[in-house]
TrEMBL record:
InterPro entries: RlpA-like_sf (IPR036908). This is Lipoprotein. Keywords: Signal. Residues 1-27 form the signal peptide. Residues 41-60 are annotated as: Disordered. Gene3D superfamilies: RlpA-like domain. Residues 41-52 have a biased composition (Low complexity). It comes from the Bacteria. The keyword Electron transport does not apply.
Length: 201
């Protein structure tokens, strides 16, 4: 082979190698952004998923909205006291609730309303929805105290806190004045619908 032919042959090989290298490099360069894009997409999807706290907050907001839309059958304002009647005889306990249901959070006592009446109470922008499960207050209802709240509801309405124990709200106050009371659904149990009446009336 002549020197000129050899030179041309070598030049062609070098050029081919350069072209091949460039193609491979370009392929690698184009693959990198695709991988980065996939990683960013995955990260974005993960960050957009709601956390447990956000989901809980959304559920609570939905519940409150539904309650707000509930038709109010009767409303009024009263002074409320608190109780926890579990049959223990502690702190003025007068026995198990008249409804036959165990004492629990969200159980209220009314001197006249039907058992299982659904009631919403509001005080200082804090609200709780519960039900009538016991009779009371007794004599105080003749002095304008028309609703007994369970210990937990009383303390929550007072300052958003929790009671010292089921028998004590943990605050000096034994009454809340100006509690807004709304009947959302009348119960089917014993009692009288409409405006509340003092105990024994």
């Amino acid at each position: 082979m002549s020197k000129r032919a050899l030179t041309l042959s070598l030049t062609g090989v070098v050029a081919l190698a350069a072209v091949t290298t460039g193609v491979v490099a370009n392929a690698d360069d184009s693959a990198a952004p695709a991988s980065a894009t996939a990683a960013v997409s995955t990260k974005s999807a993960a960050s957009s998923a709601p956390s447990a706290a956000e989901k809980k907050a959304a559920d609570e907001a939905k519940k409150e909205k539904a309650e707000a839309k509930a038709k109010v059958l009767w409303s009024g304002t009263t002074t409320a006291s608190y109780f926890w009647d579990d049959g223990s005889g502690v702190a003025g306990d007068t026995g198990a609730p008249a409804s036959g249901k165990p004492m629990q959070k969200g159980m209220f006592a009314s001197p006249s309303w039907p058992m299982n009446t659904k009631v919403k109470v509001t005080y200082k922008d804090r609200s709780v929805t519960g039900f009538v499960g016991d009779r009371g207050p007794g004599e105080p209802s003749h002095r304008g105290v028309m609703l007994d709240l369970d210990t937990y509801t009383f303390r929550y309405l007072y300052d958003g806190g929790k009671p010292s124990n089921v028998y004590s709200a943990g605050v000096d106050e034994g009454h809340l004045k100006g509690v807004k009371v709304e009947v959302l659904q009348w119960g089917s149990g014993a009692g009288t619908k409409g405006a509340w009446q003092p105990f024994g009336s």
